[in-house]
């Protein structure tokens, strides 16, 4: 035991009940207003809230934060958490790129290898570099057809949109609120993973420092 048992070290208080968000403030204003001409009033208020939230969500996830989206894509690439996808059985004899594949055999797509192929991603394929998914001035996300963490075809992952949106919101919220750094007492030199159907990082330490935001 090297004394580096994994635990998340949070340097400051994380949440407080007084940290109201945009929707809390909006709902409070809806409760407060008695003016029927107000945009916060009853039905009108509800309609406006739905419209604003959908504006924020779509505008935010589509255009505003390209670097965060690039982080999501790079995380999905480098981690390749469903490294071998899900096994499929051939229902007919098939010819693929000169290979004969007989009916009945099981096929597994090696997504991990595709995502770490230096011919596709370059010499730094094993490095975490979100910029590979950005254009030159880093204002726009550039997709790459070889990124298929949810696999491809008719049986590709049903949860792709949900998973990507959730990752985006998690990562954006964490980065908005915390500075993340290595634990100086237990630095990590490389990311070790567990093997299995789903790849996970082995436990490691890191430090979260609450950002001071002007709210
Ligand atoms: C980062 C998160 C996720 C990754 C990387 C991922 C990846 C995958 C992969 C590689 C497959 C196999 C596709 C194939 O065999 O062609 C799959 C299948 C599937 N995934 Fe996901 N998945 C994720 C999250 C989710 C979530 C959140 C849901 C549900 C809400 C979900 C539901 C499914 C289902 C139902 C299938 C089977 C689809 C079928 O066989 O028709 N996944 N996923």
Automatic annotation (TrEMBL):
<dbReference type="Pfam" id="PF00067">
    <property type="entry name" value="p450"/>
</dbReference>
<feature type="binding site" description="axial binding residue">
    <location>
        <position position="157"/>
    </location>
    <ligand>
        <name>heme</name>
    </ligand>
</feature>
<dbReference type="GO" id="GO:0020037">
    <property type="term" value="F:heme binding"/>
</dbReference>
<dbReference type="InterPro" id="IPR036396">
    <property type="entry name" value="Cyt_P450_sf"/>
</dbReference>
<dbReference type="InterPro" id="IPR050182">
    <property type="entry name" value="Cytochrome_P450_fam2"/>
</dbReference>
<keyword id="KW-0479">Metal-binding</keyword>
<keyword id="KW-0560">Oxidoreductase</keyword>
<dbReference type="GO" id="GO:0006805">
    <property type="term" value="P:xenobiotic metabolic process"/>
</dbReference>
<comment type="similarity">
    <text>Belongs to the cytochrome P450 family.</text>
</comment>
<dbReference type="GO" id="GO:0005506">
    <property type="term" value="F:iron ion binding"/>
</dbReference>
<dbReference type="InterPro" id="IPR002401">
    <property type="entry name" value="Cyt_P450_E_grp-I"/>
</dbReference>
<dbReference type="InterPro" id="IPR017972">
    <property type="entry name" value="Cyt_P450_CS"/>
</dbReference>
<keyword id="KW-0349">Heme</keyword>
<dbReference type="GO" id="GO:0006082">
    <property type="term" value="P:organic acid metabolic process"/>
</dbReference>
<dbReference type="GO" id="GO:0005737">
    <property type="term" value="C:cytoplasm"/>
</dbReference>
<keyword id="KW-0408">Iron</keyword>
<keyword id="KW-0503">Monooxygenase</keyword>
<protein>
    <submittedName>
        <fullName>Vitamin D 25-hydroxylase</fullName>
    </submittedName>
</protein>
<dbReference type="InterPro" id="IPR001128">
    <property type="entry name" value="Cyt_P450"/>
</dbReference>
<dbReference type="GO" id="GO:0016712">
    <property type="term" value="F:oxidoreductase activity, acting on paired donors, with incorporation or reduction of molecular oxygen, reduced flavin or flavoprotein as one donor, and incorporation of one atom of oxygen"/>
</dbReference>
<dbReference type="GO" id="GO:0008395">
    <property type="term" value="F:steroid hydroxylase activity"/>
</dbReference>
């Amino acid at each position: 035991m090297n004394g580096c048992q994994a635990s998340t070290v949070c340097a400051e208080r994380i949440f407080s009940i007084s940290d109201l968000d945009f929707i809390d403030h909006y709902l409070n204003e809806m409760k407060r207003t008695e003016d029927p001409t107000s945009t916060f009033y009853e039905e009108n208020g509800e309609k406006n809230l739905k419209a604003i939230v959908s504006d924020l969500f779509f505008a935010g996830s589509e255009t505003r934060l390209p670097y965060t989206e690039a982080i999501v894509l790079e995380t999905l690439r480098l981690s390749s958490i469903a490294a071998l996808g899900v096994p499929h059985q051939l229902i007919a004899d098939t010819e693929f790129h000169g290979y004969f594949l007989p009916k009945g055999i099981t096929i597994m797509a090696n997504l991990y290898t595709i995502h770490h192929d230096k011919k596709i991603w370059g010499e730094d394929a094993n490095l975490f570099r979100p910029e590979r998914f950005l254009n030159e001035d880093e204002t726009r996300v550039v997709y790459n057809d070889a990124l298929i963490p949810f696999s491809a075809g008719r049986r590709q992952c049903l949860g792709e949109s949900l998973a990507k949106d959730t990752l985006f919101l998690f990562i954006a919220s964490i980065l908005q609120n915390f500075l993340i750094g290595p634990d100086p007492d237990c630095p990590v030199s490389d990311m070790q993973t567990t093997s299995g159907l789903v790849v996970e990082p082995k436990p490691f330490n890191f430090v979260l420092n609450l950002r001071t935001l002007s709210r």
